[in-house]
């Protein structure tokens, strides 16, 4: 998918947070997530040897703190000018289970593009699909047409 103006603005938001808040080894990546109605939530990773959360998960938590349960697009940006960073495997699974249709911004800064999370994790385990009595957690929604 091609980048929209709102996608570029989301990259700028994550970049700004990375510049402002990622100034130690504890916080090295910033994420920004947008809702369909245009609200933006940001977060930074919380590094810890026990497995601190990635920036994407912190942004999801920030959104949930405000009662937001639907995200349209998400992006992560590294500190020290590293640009957009694709989500790690764990985040791909979290995003896929929580927001089955979320768009993810990936690629080098001069060729950014948007993909659906399902494209980043094809043929994956889907938690909600495996519940015998139906989903009790994140509810899957059909993938929209591009
Ligand atoms: Zn991650």
TrEMBL record:
A GO cellular component annotation in the UniProt record: cytosol
Domain of life: Bacteria
Presence of the UniProt keyword Zinc in the record: yes
Pfam families: dCMP_cyt_deam_1
GO MF terms, alphabetically ordered: cytidine deaminase activity; identical protein binding; zinc ion binding
Boundaries of every CMP/dCMP-type deaminase domain copy: 4-128
GO biological process: nucleobase-containing small molecule metabolic process; pyrimidine-containing compound metabolic process
Family: Belongs to the cytidine and deoxycytidylate deaminase family.
Record protein name field: Cytidine deaminase
UniProt source species: Micromonospora peucetia
């Amino acid at each position: 998918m091609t980048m929209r103006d709102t996608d570029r603005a989301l990259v700028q938001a994550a970049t700004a947070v990375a510049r402002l808040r990622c100034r130690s080894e504890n916080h090295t990546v910033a994420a920004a997530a947008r809702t369909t109605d245009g609200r933006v939530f940001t977060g930074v990773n919380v590094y810890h040897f026990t497995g601190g959360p990635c920036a994407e998960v912190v942004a999801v938590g920030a959104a949930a703190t405000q009662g937001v349960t639907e995200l349209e697009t998400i992006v992560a940006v590294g500190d020290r000018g590293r640009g957009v960073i694709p989500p790690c495997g764990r985040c791909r699974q979290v995003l896929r289970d929580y927001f089955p249709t979320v768009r993810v911004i990936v690629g080098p800064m001069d060729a950014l593009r948007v993909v659906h999370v399902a494209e980043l994790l094809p043929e994956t385990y889907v938690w909600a699909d495996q519940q015998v009595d139906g989903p009790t957690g994140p509810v899957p929604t059909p993938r929209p047409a591009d």
